[in-house]
Amino acid sequence: MTQRAVLAAAALALLLAAPAVGIEPYMLHIAVQILLWSFVYTAWSLMGRFGLTSFGHGGFLAIGAYTSSLLWNDLHLSPWVGIPAGAAMAAVGALAVGYPCFRLKVVGHYFALVTLAFGEVIRLAIIAARDVTGGSLGMTPNPVPTPSLVALQFASKETFYYIALGLWLVGLAVWWRVDRSMIAKALTAISDDEAAAAAIGINVARRKLAITLLSAVMTAVGGSLLGQYLMYLNPDSLAGINPSLQIVFAAIAGGMYSLLGPTAGAVLTICLGEFLRILFGTHFIGAANTIYGILLILFIIFLPRGLVGALDSRGTPRAPYNAIRRPSSAAQ
Description:
- By secondary structure, the protein is an all-alpha fold.
- It has 16 helices and no strands.
- It has one domain (23-324): ABC transporter involved in vitamin B12 uptake, BtuC.
């Protein structure tokens, strides 16, 4: 086994043993959130690393969370049914946004603005349907009297920790598989020059739509489990610009071109958010988003490859920006 494989096995063993060593409930709560958000950030990086910048992933997050919870509350359908249903709804939303954009060659900041509008439309729709969704006050999935695997409600956080850990590993496996597939090479060529990629036979619209659908579906699954874990859904924390900005910042700060970059971004954002909550309390409500924006600018300028990418390239001469936008797949 290589040194990297040994370190990965040791890290996984440590993560599996964490609940058994008596970790405090608060720390376990933070760990669950880090794992779930890491999955969401990894889903966004599948698009972002190929130049498809989305500011509307909060919309997919909310679609997954609300679909699953509404099916449970109104139709008594288990989250095991609601989560795939939410993923399917997110795929429909991604198709509705992505297909016309990619067919009409809407790229760059125009595509980013379209996705931003999509996230806001989802947020406003949730608020408008207040009789069903609870509107801006939010909603809570109906609790069950006893812990239930069918309802995905448990007496302790340990069970949900292992669910979140499994989901995180699935996210890493998907990222790794995409990174080593032909679609990654095609998308890299498309992000460099769409006309040249089309000239050599790459179906540009189909490739971009495929990665968008995958990213949206994964984000919806993450949103469903986040809502199920927190047992509270709010349009401002799940849809619109606020969660979308958090997703973009975390993926870029951690390193969207690296396997563990989004996870590093999740550790940074969750810990930063908790620190600011304790530091400011209710005195500076917008502290997290303000600091996210400032840090995002700094990371784009000084660490375009993110924290993990910077550590991977330590000791090597600084390359021009164009050369470090998409490092080789070996950088993990």
